[in-house]
Structure formats: structure tokens, C-alpha cells
TrEMBL record:
Keywords: Cell outer membrane, Membrane, Signal, Transmembrane, Transmembrane beta strand, Transport. This is Outer membrane protein TolC. Residues 1-27 form the signal peptide. It comes from Mesonia phycicola. GO terms for molecular function: efflux transmembrane transporter activity; porin activity. Belongs to the outer membrane factor (OMF) (TC 1.B.17) family. It holds the Pfam family OEP. GO terms for cellular component: cell outer membrane; efflux pump complex.
């Protein structure tokens, strides 16, 4: 019987190796770097972020144009079927039935309460905010790609655990079949192993479906063609450096944090809006130059080009007790609201960074705990198998030990994948995710 068992084990191992080799040859490998590159090129959110930045740049150019004079040219002509101006003896013997006019005007605002400068400052602030928003979109894509990629890796590794358990149960089932044929065990023990295998096949089917969904999710997000033969490749059991050694302290410098910078820009914009509303209460002064000529097509009226210079002064007296004054007060309230949002945002960002830091530390400890569980489960299964072969314990103890080992290996796989996600989250919250990816 032992000879048969050894033969069966060799056949099973060879078959597993053959099918594993075949699947490896047929599988199309996906690396995190390849998926990330594709996602960065495909992402609609990044494209929209870049388009918003372009919009802000155009608005900035429009604001800069306010520093230059406004120039306007105009021409008109009039033709009458009868004399528009009847003949005047000695002055206009033929009358006038047509005339034309051309003019050009240039005007320049000298002072408008600072509104021109404020418009440029607001446009610059909006352009900076849109650039930060584009960076945020990119970082968000990096985080989402990592999360989806490691979710796929975790499922694939769990499939490997199930495949290993399946080989073990097949060997055990063959052993039980031989023992039953030899009349050494009851049929219930064989059925017990079959039930265990059925449960394992159910898990395998569930994981297969979850893998397809995770793969589809990643493919759609990264803009790659969905194919069930795609396999995510990454060394999930690589040695991980403790976060306390890899990162000295949680990065709490919010001045370089994109989320904080956006909140600060909102406050700056609110303060500029107050100044902009106050500018409507101040006098406005402009100067200009104009030149015009009026004449008739068939009569020389002798009117030369008439150049004139002009200046305008506007004083908004009623604005001091009308709606403009109320608008200034409303904008001042908006500044206070923006200040409160900035303080709340600072607290929330600090809390979020510290939480991601502690989550990362806990994820590392979870790996250590999972590794200890695997060592125990492997030793326990070996001991239970030896005892079962020696008749010192029953089949239930052996199957429980196998189930414990399977759970321990699955927990270890999850711990590694979860650590990678937690690390990406920490780097994202501290605005370091993009730089780390670039370095790698």
C-alpha cells in the first residue's frame, strides 16, 4: 500500500508540475509597473485634470491682457436715394446723398481700485490650484492601481494555497480508498475526506470567480484588454523592511501636502475676493486717444482726421450704502469660513497621516503573526499526519490540522497584500507615493 501511495504522490506531483508549466507558458504576465504606466496614460480623471489646468492657463492669459490698452476701430457708410443733405447755395451746390466715417480709439485703465492686479492674482491662484489638482488625480490613480493590483495578487496566491490543499486531499483520498479496499477503515472516513474535498472545490470555484472580477476591475481601470489568461506577477513573499526602519517618522509637513495646499489656496482666493469687492467702492480713472474722419464719397467736404485725447473718472458714491457694501461683508464672512475649513482640514490630514502610519505598523506585525501561524500549522499538520499513520489519532484531527494550515497560509497571503496596500495609503496620505514609484 505504501508503494502505491508513493507512486500516486509522484504522479500527482508530475501532473501538477506539467499543468503548472503549461499555464505559465500560456499566461500573459502583468507587472505593477506595466499596469501603472497604462493606467496613467488611460485615466480619464488625469486627462480631465490636465484639461482643467489648460483652462486655468487660458484664463490667466486673458487676465494678463487687461494690462494692455483696449483698441477699437470702427467704420460706417450711409447712402441715401435722395439727398440726405439738400443743396445749399454757395456752400453745398450738389447736396450730399452719402457719407462715411472711420475712427480708432485706444483706452487704458490707469486705476481701477487694483482690480486688474487682483484679476491676475486670482487667475494665477486658479492655475496653481488646477496644477495641484492634476497632481492629486495622478496620485489617486497610483493608489487605486496598487490597491486593485494587490487585490488580484492576493486572490491568485489564495488560489495557490487551495491548489496545494487540493493535491494533499487527493493524496489523502487515495490513501483512504486503499485502506477501505483493504478493510482497515469504515466507509464513513472515505466520505469524510470527499466532503472535505467538495468544500475545497467550492472555495476554488469562488476564488476563480473573484479573480475574474478583480482582473476585470484592474483591466477596465488601467485600460488594458481583458483576458482570463492575464496573471499579475509580483514577489509577495519578499523580505519586507520594518516601517520604523524604512520611514523614520510620520511625515507631518503639511506645507508640501497637496490637500493642504488646496485648502490654503481656497483661503487665499477668499481673501482676494474681499479685496476685489472693495475695489468696486474705489474711484476708477482711465485715459484714451481717439482719431476720426467723416467725409462723402463723391464730395470733398474738407474734413481732416480729428485726433482727441480724453480721460474718465468714475466715483461709485452710492456703492457705499448699496449692494456693493453688503457684498464686501459677505466676502469677509467667506474668508472666516475658509479659515475654519483650513484648520479643520489640517486636523483631519494630521489624523489621517497618523492613522495610516499606525495601520502600516499593524500590517507589518500582522505579517509576523501570520508567519508564526504558518510555522505552527505546518508542524502541527506533520505531527497529526504521523500520529494518524501510527493510529494515535483520528481522521478528524488530521483534517482539522490541514484546514488550519490552509487558513494560516491564506492569512499570510492576505497579510502581505494588505501591507502593500497600507504602505501605498501611507505614501499617498503623505504625498510621497508618486516619488516612490518613480524611484522604483
Amino acid at each position: 500500500m505504501k508503494a502505491l501511495n508513493h507512486l500516486y504522490i509522484k504522479i500527482s506531483v508530475c501532473a501538477a508540475f506539467f499543468f503548472g508549466l503549461t499555464s505559465t507558458i500560456q499566461a500573459q504576465e502583468l507587472t505593477l509597473e506595466e499596469v501603472t504606466t497604462s493606467a496613467l496614460e488611460y485615466s480619464r480623471s488625469i486627462k480631465n485634470g490636465n484639461l482643467r489646468a489648460e483652462q486655468a492657463a487660458l484664463i490667466k492669459r486673458e487676465a494678463v491682457a487687461k494690462y494692455f490698452p483696449e483698441v477699437e476701430a470702427m467704420a460706417f457708410g450711409v447712402y441715401g436715394f435722395e439727398n440726405l443733405i439738400p443743396p445749399i447755395t454757395g456752400i453745398l451746390p450738389n447736396g450730399i446723398d452719402n457719407f462715411y466715417g472711420i475712427s480708432a480709439t485706444a483706452s487704458q485703465v490707469v486705476y481701477a481700485g487694483g482690480k486688474v492686479n487682483l484679476a491676475n492674482d486670482l487667475a494665477q491662484l486658479q492655475a496653481d490650484s488646477r496644477l495641484i489638482g492634476a497632481e492629486e488625480s495622478r496620485d489617486s490613480v497610483l493608489l487605486n492601481v496598487e490597491s486593485k493590483f494587490w487585490q488580484l495578487i492576493k486572490i491568485q496566491e489564495q488560489q495557490e494555497v487551495i491548489a496545494s490543499s487540493k493535491i494533499y486531499l487527493n493524496e489523502l483520498l487515495k490513501q483512504q480508498t486503499d485502506l477501505l479496499e483493504a478493510g482497515l477503515i469504515a466507509k464513513s472516513q472515505l466520505l469524510r475526506v470527499k466532503v472535505e474535498k467538495s468544500g475545497l472545490l467550492l472555495k476554488q470555484n469562488d476564488l476563480n470567480n473573484k479573480r475574474k472580477i478583480a482582473l476585470l476591475d484592474l483591466a477596465l481601470y488601467a485600460g488594458i484588454n481583458y483576458d482570463t489568461t492575464l496573471v499579475a506577477i509580483k514577489g509577495i513573499h519578499e523580505k519586507i523592511t520594518p516601517p520604523q526602519l524604512k520611514y523614520k517618522n510620520p511625515e507631518l509637513d503639511l506645507q508640501n501636502n497637496n490637500k493642504y495646499r488646496l485648502l490654503q489656496h481656497q483661503l487665499d482666493a477668499a481673501e482676494l475676493q474681499v479685496k476685489n469687492e472693495k475695489a468696486d467702492l474705489l474711484p476708477k480713472f482711465a485715459v484714451g486717444f481717439s482719431a476720426a474722419k467723416f467725409d462723402s464719397f463723391n464730395t470733398d467736404l474738407g474734413i481732416d482726421v480729428q485726433p482727441i485725447a480724453f480721460g474718465t473718472l468714475s466715483i461709485p458714491i452710492s456703492a457705499w450704502w448699496s449692494g456693493e457694501k453688503r457684498q464686501v461683508e459677505e466676502r469677509q464672512i467667506a474668508v472666516t469660513i475658509a479659515e475654519n475649513k483650513l484648520k479643520d482640514g489640517e486636523d483631519q490630514l494630521t489624523l489621517g497621516i497618523m492613522k495610516s502610519w499606525y495601520d502600516l505598523q499593524n500590517a507589518y506585525k500582522q505579517i509576523q503573526y501570520a508567519e508564526d501561524r504558518v510555522l505552527y500549522a505546518q508542524e502541527n499538520l506533520k505531527s497529526q499526519k504521523d500520529n494518524y499513520d501510527s493510529g494515535l489519532n483520528n481522521l478528524t484531527d488530521l483534517l482539522d490540522a490541514r484546514s488550519t494550515q490552509e487558513e494560516a497560509k491564506a492569512a499570510l497571503v492576505s497579510a502581505y497584500a494588505d501591507y502593500e496596500v497600507k504602505e501605498a495609503m501611507y505614501l499617498y496620505s503623505t504625498n510621497q507615493l508618486q516619488d516612490t514609484f518613480t524611484e522604483n
